[in-house]
Design brief:
Distance between the termini: 68 Å
Radius of gyration: 22 Å
Number of helices: 3
Order of helices and strands: HEEHH
Number of domains: 1
Strand content: 15-25%
Shape: elongated
Number of strands: 2
Largest sheet: 2 strands, antiparallel
């Protein structure tokens, strides 16, 4: 098997079928010694992905209590 000039390889059909790797399946790579391992990526919901993207992004110097006061009507 050869790697293309774009760094692509074709996963043989028997392995795709055995692991259920369909088009648009997310995969992860892991380097162990001189081996490269491919595995299905963990399923992440859209909401989980949004939280991961937004986590730690706040630049506001307000406390949680101050922010909650702004979101509640009095």
């Amino acid at each position: 098997m050869l790697i293309t000039s774009k760094g692509q390889v074709t996963i043989p059909k028997k392995y795709r079928e055995a692991l259920g790797l369909l088009p648009h399946t997310h995969i992860e790579f892991e380097c162990v010694g001189d081996e490269l391992r491919i595995k299905k990526a963990k399923q992440v919901t859209r909401g989980q992905r949004m939280i991961e993207i937004m986590a730690g992004k706040s630049t506001v110097s307000m406390s949680t209590d101050e922010i909650m006061k702004l979101t509640r009507s009095e």
